[in-house]
TrEMBL record:
GO terms for molecular function: DNA-binding transcription factor activity; sequence-specific DNA binding. Residues 227-325 form the HTH araC/xylS-type domain. Pfam families: DJ-1_PfpI, HTH_18. The lineage of its organism: Bacteria, Pseudomonadati, Bacteroidota, Chitinophagia, Chitinophagales. Keywords: Transcription, Transcription regulation. This is GlxA family transcriptional regulator. The keyword Transcription applies. It comes from the Bacteria.
Length: 332
């Protein structure tokens, strides 16, 4: 069985983990297959190529390390099994640089698989590869991505998605999750498990991107009614507060307050308050020793059962599981 050629295109300004993470997964799988450890696929594996998208083979990363690619995508002569775009600065499109987009449009039909890591999803979208498909990207870009590409069904909950032969992954470390899934797809569960053990990774990481996401992008509401209300809401977080009370605090009618608030934030006042309660509860779970009952009371989330229900709705995880995952480092 011949090795599968995996081409990873590191884009300028990308985090090193976007690139190095998947490379290490494929490299570990290649070593395991080469050594023939408990698999019938001994002798197969991966040929990993880093290819620059344009003429310049040096690619600066956001981590301060410059990648040197041995060749460009136009110089690849061997058959490509899997083509992955790691990151993608939209400034290239704004500057009229569509070299990678044009390459993808021309060569996509000849690729067995194509994928993206983090905002590399934008490159696939620009090339039309994701039209009518399901995709994910970094959770920070969920709303803007959906607005820019309405024909794509974007869901930033999962760490990665598959639709046909197109694979997309979420923020940064999700590229590792995607690479693990591709190894399992290619060579089976046993090989993937050995890779996970070797690199001390999950075979399939539990949870969703939503556990890492900020429910409220406060910079976007700073000058809105929500921004004006936030300090007052935080002072009264342990109390019930309805739309009427919020409107009265701003000396506005309920109807006008609700209309303006929803237009500015894209959510109802009640939903904003609920998300703010969850955000503060998250901080208590991360940094404090308060019990679940105390946190639920302090954040106005009712009892433990009610807080659990709200957490599952917004975070796809229970408060206790969230605390175990995100508790302050080196805490007892």
């Amino acid at each position: 069985m011949a090795k599968k050629t995996v081409v990873i295109v590191p884009m300028p300004g990308t985090y090193m983990l976007d690139i190095a993470g998947p490379c290490d997964v494929f490299a570990a799988a290649d070593q395991i297959l080469r050594e023939g450890l408990g698999t019938e696929g001994a002798g197969s594996g991966y040929n990993i190529l880093l290819a620059a998208y344009g003429d310049e083979k040096t690619v600066p990363t956001r981590s301060g390390i410059t990648m040197i690619c041995p060749l460009t995508v136009d110089e690849i002569t061997e058959p490509i099994d899997t083509f992955i775009v790691a990151g993608f600065p939209m400034a290239l499109i704004q500057a009229g640089d569509r070299r990678l987009i044009n390459w993808l449009k021309k060569n996509y039909p000849r690729l067995r698989r194509v994928g993206s890591i983090c905002v590399g999803t934008y490159a696939l979208a620009e090339a039309g590869i994701l039209d009518g498909k399901n995709a994910t990207t970094h959770w920070e870009h969920s709303r803007s991505f959906q607005e820019k590409y309405p024909s794509i069904c974007v869901d930033t909950n999962p760490f990665y998605t598959k639709d046909g032969n197109v694979y997309t992954s979420g923020g940064v470390s999700s590229g590792v999750d995607l690479a693990m899934a591709l190894v399992e797809e290619d060579y089976g569960r046993e090989v993937a498990i050995q890779v996970a053990r070797k690199l001390v990774l999950y075979l399939k990481r539990p949870g969703y991107q939503s556990q890492f996401a900020n429910l409220l992008q406060l910079h976007s509401v700073a000058n809105s009614l929500a921004g004006k209300l936030r300090p007052w809401i935080l002072e009264h977080l342990d109390k019930e507060m309805g739309v009427e009370e919020l409107a009265t605090h701003l000396n506005m009618s309920i109807r006008n307050f609700t209309r303006v608030f929803t237009r500015e934030t894209g959510m109802t006042p009640a939903k904003f308050v609920e998300k703010l309660r969850v955000e503060i509860a998250r901080k208590y779970l991360e940094d404090s020793d308060y019990s679940m009952e105390q946190i639920a009371t302090r954040c106005g989330l009712g009892g433990v059962v009610s807080m659990r229900r709200v957490f599952l709705r917004h975070m796809n995880v229970t408060p206790s599981d969230y605390r175990r995952t995100f508790r302050t480092s080196f805490a007892d």
